[in-house]
Exonuclease domain-containing protein
Amino acid sequence: MSTAILERLKTLEIQSPDTPLKDSLLLGFDTETTGTYAGKDAIVSASLVLRDPQTSYAGDTVAEWIIAPGIPMNPLASKVNGFTDDFLEAHGAEQKTAILEIAGTIVQAQLKNIPLLAYNAPFDVDMLNGDLRRIGRAPIVTEINDADTDNFLTGTQRELIVADPLVIDRAVSKRSGRRTLTDTTYYYGVQPHGSFHDATADTVAAVDLIEPICAAYPQAGVITVAGLMDWQRNAHETWKEQFNAYLESQGRPPVRDSWFPVQR
């Protein structure tokens, strides 16, 4: 794993909470996994991409991991992401080391007020939290608070700051149709750097979405880092209410999940 992101983070000032999304540094995150169940399945590939909007893709700093998960690949997941048990055993890093590196990088970015960006972010964060529990560590938000000595002294609790292009796009664009990462990047004219279902290519594609979304819908671009989580929670609840009305009309069960609910 490259330590370039950590080294770059050390050189950065703490980002103002008033920074608008269109001007914010972002830490993109994506995973490929053995399956879809956090805690039961595990991460086999991950990437983090530190993006400065002033330099865009050309200035990205990237870290990548291939991880030996210690459990077999689900055949359906293997068909999607191309990873096999033999390949991961031969080329994967030790799970505990890799997961701690990923979490540690996210923690340092959060302490600089740099949002973690992921498309359908609850999935990737839940998978990371599942692997953290597997190696005997706390969820990522606890790791952040444990590392924040300033807030420890004041008793203030941080939350994980996340930017989710899926949630933002649903809120501002009322188009019909599918909103997979592939579909959404095509809609906004984002050209992929590599193949989808490659963790790094997916991370870059997700980060690349922010600029055209903010250009097309200026109301998204002015969301501040401080207001990002509440804005997205409200957006998700509005989408869920509308989507559930549609599901009810089709005789289908409702969606019940929340988007990063506030921890009390």
Observations:
- The domain at 4-250 is CATH 3.30.420.10 (Nucleotidyltransferase; domain 5).
- The chain has one domain: 4-250.
- Residues 228-249 form the longest helix (22 residues).
- The chain has a mean pLDDT of 93.
